Amino acid sequence: MSLKNIVLQGIPASPGVILGRAKVLRGREGYQVSPRLLYTEEEVAQELQRFRRAVDQTAEELNSHLKDLPPELKEHSHILETHLIILRDPMLFQETQRLIREQQLNSERALYQAYHKVKELFQNIKDPYIKARIQDVDEVYRRLLGHLTGNYRSRTLSFTEPVIIIAKDLSPNETTQMSGSPVLGFVTERGGRTSHTAIIAQSLEIPAVVGLDNATLEIASGDPIIVDGLTGRIILNPDGATQKKYQARQEEFETFRAEVAQGSSLPAVTTDGHANRVYANIELPEEVSLALKYGADGIGLYRTEFLYLRLRHLPKEEELFEDYKQVVEAMAPREVTIRTLDIGGDKFLSHLQYPAEMNPALGLRAIRFCLKEQNIFRTQLKAILRASAYGKTRVIFPLISSVREIREARRLLESVKADLKSQGVAFNESLPVGAMIEVPAAVTLASLLAQEVDFFSIGTNDLIQYALAIDRGNKQVADMYQPLHPAVLRMIRDVVQAGRAARISVAMCGEMAGDPLYLPVLLGLGVEGLSMNATAIPVVKRVIRMISLEEAREIARQALRKNTVEEINDSVIKDMERRFPEIFRFGRHLATL
Question: Which residues pair with 338 in a beta bridge?
Answer without folding.
Answer: 302, 395
